[in-house]
Amino acid sequence: MRPALRKSLLTLHVCVSAGWMGAILVFLALSIIGMTSADAATVRGVYLVMQPAARFVLVPLAIASLVTGIVQSLGTKWGLLRHYWVIFKLVINLVATGVLLSYFPTFRRLAVLASDPAADLPDVRSGSPGLHSVLALIVLALAMVLAVFKPRGLTARGWRKQQARQRQGVTA
Description:
This protein is an all-alpha fold and 172 residues long. It has helices at 3-36, 40-74, 84-102, 104-115, 121-124, 128-149, 156-168. The chain has one domain (3-168).
């Protein structure tokens, strides 16, 4: 991959990944507001906004992070399956995106409850989005640490490719 393209893709990947983390921080803030506000309209509004925000912000950023990460890895010396840290980042992203997608029924249920004026406020409140936000931030921070520190450790495939390059006199 040419350096300008590689840097552009890396910049895009960092931007969407940071955006994903930022959106999760917003969800954490919304969850805290939903759990602590004394104003019923505010509490209901928090849970009403979560569903469309997840659909139009969280999911696109999660998928963009996954796609740009895969493209980035395929176009660099790190490869997709050569280093354990890259595989761990891929698994983290796949699991986090899968959990997010599987959480949509909860967002829908919370929005339905929030839109029902007869629902009692304690029934509308849910700590689940806050808990999921904290867990998501932890695993995405772990992925960030892996990307920055790039711990050593070649997979068997990576080791074979490295040995083949060395036999051919190519360093990478």
